[in-house]
Amino acid sequence: MKAFIKFNQSILRMPLQWQIWVMLLVTVNLIVPLFFINRLEAQVVVGNLFGSMILMTVLTGLSGFTRLVGLGHFLWFPLLYFLWTRLSYYPPETIYGIWIRVLMTLNAVSLVIDVIDVIRYLGGDRKETIQSLKSD
């Protein structure tokens, strides 16, 4: 429970531009798919987000809110492949097709950031990214 609280506190203490980025990811990975929850892709996206959140919480518990937390999105690699294989079923001019493409784009950008973060962590940058949490 302590890791879950620390993970969420860390997100709330991030600089505003990163909080906006996280909210965008939550919007396309959780809020929007709830409108399409009867469709397989939306169910997979929501389930994948919860899996990623659990993994990021565990990683926060193990290493603190470090760059290693980016590893929590590794589940998005198979998610993006799954969605890519389904794109032909959903034309880009439909609301559902637009959502899937926006989701894939934002998640791909996030994965680039996450891969860079994990590489930096493995390279020795292991400090907490939200410094005010060190005493928590």
Please summarize what this structure is:
With 136 residues, the chain is an all-alpha fold.
Report on this model:
With 136 residues, the chain is mostly helical. It has one domain. It is 68% helix and 0% strand. The protein is elongated, with a radius of gyration of 16 Å. The model has no long low-confidence stretch (mean pLDDT 94).
Report the portion of residues in β strands.
under 5%
Mean pLDDT over the residues: 94
Number of strands: 0
Overall geometry: elongated
N-C termini distance: 14 Å
Q: Residue ranges: pLDDT <50 for 5 or more in a row?
A: none
Q: What is the CA-based Rg, rounded?
A: 16 Å
Number of domains: 1
Counting DSSP H or I runs of 4 or more residues, the number of helices is 5
Largest sheet entry: none
Q: List the secondary-structure elements in sequence, H or E.
A: HHHHH
Helix content: 55-70%
Structural class: mainly alpha
